[in-house]
Design brief:
Elements (H helix, E strand, L loop, with lengths): L1 H87 L2 H12 L25
């Protein structure tokens, strides 16, 4: 029986060692999975912390550039319109527009209108 007792003792020792190895393997797997999940979580946090704000920053810079161009165009148009207002406030320009658009004349002037020639059908030659 001593040989069978020795066999029993070796079996639990092997079983205990297998259990220990299995526990160590499960712990290692758990550590790897936990590490992978942690790395994934940190990656998502970095994405939210840096990538999205950077994209927003770039979009805002583009918007700012477009708006500056628009402002420049509007300022040029304002300058052109201000010059036109100043021009329209002169007596010479008012008179020019009155003569061209409304056929007006000064009280001491006479207006003449030159009419275009009337086109008639050519008369047949006698003959």
């Amino acid at each position: 029986m001593s040989s069978s007792t020795g066999a029993r003792r070796s079996t639990p020792a092997v079983s205990d060692r297998d259990d220990e190895l299995e526990r160590a393997e499960r712990t290692r797997r758990r550590f790897v999975i936990t590490g992978a999940v942690t790395i994934g979580f940190v990656a998502v946090l970095l994405l939210f912390a840096f990538v999205f704000p950077t994209r927003t920053y770039v979009e805002q810079r583009q918007d700012l550039s477009r708006e500056r161009e628009r402002l420049e165009v509007l300022q040029e148009e304002n300058a052109r319109l201000a010059a036109r207002i100043a021009e329209l406030q002169t007596e010479t320009e008012v008179e020019r527009i009155a003569r061209e658009q409304f056929n007006m004349v000064r009280p001491d002037e006479e207006a003449y209108a030159i009419l275009p020639p009337t086109t008639t059908a050519p008369s047949p030659l006698p003959g």
